[in-house]
Write a structure and sequence with these properties.
Length: about 425
């Protein structure tokens, strides 16, 4: 191929939708292409791949190219994607994949399956080593969906399709969001690209480096405990449609990225438990400091309790728990007590900490107090809780490090984060947990 032909080919590839996606994604629209002229039979490979910077961080990315054979997976495409994963592993860089494909080139037969397998294997090797983000901009149906969902976070344009079923069954993005598969739903393709760029702000490049520190902003004056603790405008919500009674977000406190779990006062469902456990394990893998606001009267089932408890117990990242409402039994143990192995535990003055729910505690330890009309029992239980199950009582017995007002809480968390920044914990050698 002559220099003139090479220039023409690069110009043509540069005008494709995939190249435009990566240009919009990387800082200044600049990235270095990898295997630019790789061929897939009679066309160029159905993916554009390269590396550059996003918000000043090193990132490797690929975008399936619908302008060539509908972006269908092929041996050539798999080889380019695998190379991106290999380079990211060598350099310790974030990987972002943009998915938009009509499927696979079936005429390649078993070689196509081998290509899918190589890509999935490469992604698995990187899990827990560098953060991985998938951005679904169009169709992602069949085996390609398995590759996309293997990432730590999945961002999807609301009209895209994502399903392992080749018929497209259950491919609706809202359905995937409600089932915890899609982390963030974007309004448009541009919005999806911007949300991926924004998410990178909260992530380290790998499991050794630390996240960047940003300029501090004052917290919101109104809103829930999360808004009044985190820097204003810093909250990045994840899996909003999945799990009713727990919220997981990234935020910044005093300019430093942190992960936040916030329970919302009800018993945690299995979806809540799955959501919390996955988020805790991610934060732990990349040493992102974890803040947990505890307000729940338990778990709906024992399996959920075990899953959450295991995630917290194994996590060696900085863990700060704050009891903001009710913390009962296994819930307290798993999220704030000895089971969570929290570094610091605070409580608001109105918090209630008990081995069982307050009604049962009153009935067991002071049944005579409930010898009143039914209409008055709620007030009696409330009085019993304030006298016997209060945050002050827990602090007196060493189960809470301090009782703080909401106005004092942010300063205490900032100081705790600073104090714990050098935390190092040795764990027993093992391949992985079995819980």
């Amino acid at each position: 191929m002559s220099i003139e032909n090479i220039t023409q080919a690069k110009t043509a590839i540069g005008k494709t939708s995939a190249c435009k996606t990566l240009t919009a994604f990387f800082d200044g629209g600049e990235f270095t292409s990898v295997d630019t002229l790789a061929k897939s039979k009679d066309t160029y490979a159905e993916v554009v791949a390269g590396y550059g910077e996003v918000n000043g961080k090193s990132v490797f990315a690929f975008a399936q190219n619908g302008d060539f054979c509908g972006g269908a997976m092929s041996k050539a495409q798999a080889a380019k994607i695998k190379k991106i994963y290999d380079l990211a592993l060598k350099t310790g860089s974030i990987v972002v994949g943009f998915y938009n494909s009509k499927g696979g080139r079936l005429d390649e037969g078993n070689a196509l399956l081998a290509g899918y397998g190589e890509v999935l294997n490469s992604a698995s090797k990187l899990s827990g080593v560098v953060p991985q983000i998938s951005v679904v901009l169009g169709d992602c149906i069949g085996t390609g969906a398995l590759n996309a969902v293997s990432a730590d976070f999945v961002i999807a344009e609301k009209n895209a399709r994502l399903s392992l079923d080749t018929t497209g069954k259950n491919s609706d993005i809202e359905y995937n969001a409600e089932n915890g598969i899609v982390s963030v739903v974007a309004k448009t393709e541009d919005d999806a690209i911007e949300k991926a760029r924004e998410l990178i702000n909260y992530l380290p490049e790998n499991n050794i480096t630390e996240t960047y520190t940003f300029e501090e902003t004052a917290p919101e004056s109104d809103g829930c405990v999360v808004h009044k603790t985190a820097d204003a405008g810093s909250i990045y919500r994840l899996s909003v449609s999945y799990g009713k009674y727990a919220r997981t977000v990234f935020a910044r406190i005093n300019g430093e990225p942190v992960g936040i779990v916030n329970t919302l006062g009800k018993k945690l469902t299995s979806d809540d438990a799955n959501k919390i456990a996955k988020f805790v394990r991610f934060c732990d893998a990349f040493s992102i400091k974890l803040i947990t606001f505890v307000n729940s009267n338990g778990f709906e089932d024992i399996k959920s309790a075990v899953k959450v408890s295991s995630a917290y117990a194994e996590a060696t990242t900085v863990k700060i728990s704050v009891v903001t409402g009710t913390a009962v039994g296994a819930l307290y143990i798993a999220l704030a007590g000895e089971g969570a192995n929290a570094d610091v535990v605070y409580a608001l003055p109105e918090a209630v900490i008990s081995p069982v729910n307050p009604e049962a505690a009153a009935l067991i330890t002071a049944p005579e107090k409930l010898n009143v009309p039914v209409s008055q029992q709620a007030d009696v239980v409330k009085q019993f809780a304030s006298e016997n199950l209060s945050a002050e009582k827990a602090a007196e017995n060493g189960y809470v490090d301090d009782v703080l007002t909401l106005d004092e809480l942010r300063g205490a968390i900032v100081n705790a984060v600073y104090m714990l920044s050098g935390k190092r914990v040795e764990t027993l050698s093992k391949k992985h947990s079995t819980i």
